[in-house]
Amino acid sequence: MSTDVGPPDGYTDAELARREARDAEVRRLQAAGRCYQCHDQQVAGELLGRETVIATRGPVQVSLAADPRAVGHTIVGWLPHVPDFLALDEAETAVLFNAAREVGLALKAALGCERVYLVTMCDGEHNHLHLQLIPRYAGTPIGSRRLVDPRRPLRDASALTAAVRERLGAAWPA
């Protein structure tokens, strides 16, 4: 499994068409007042890709970013709708951030990255609070620039999810 994501414009025509169709469906759902992540769970991952889901445990779902900034860019999502992490109580905060730590350790072990950066997002009315885990590999410059690196196509999703799942173990059902 390669950690080389290639050039920022590395989308094939087919990948670009899938991305544009997905983004159009996300906009349609949002305009209709629907959460696209909840919709995707109801249709078994047809929108974001079944192979992107690594595991779900309680209120936390872990999946690969559909357009990663680095190989292994992972989303640790909080399934109940909340405006941001400040709406979580202490126990919920512990569940979410402990999950992120476990997944970060699994990413590091599975992919051999040097660091795993964490950033939180929860934008818009119809979105889920989620933590983004962005691996940084040897030879990659350090710093916050990694958080705005160009997005690239997700490739080898099945191999990536399997590698991280294996490191997470039985405590994280697929």
Automatic annotation (TrEMBL):
Residues 68-143 form the HIT domain. Pfam families: HIT. GO terms for molecular function: hydrolase activity. This is Diadenosine tetraphosphate (Ap4A) HIT family hydrolase. Keywords: Hydrolase. The keyword Electron transport does not apply. Signal peptide: none annotated. It comes from Microlunatus parietis. It comes from the Bacteria.
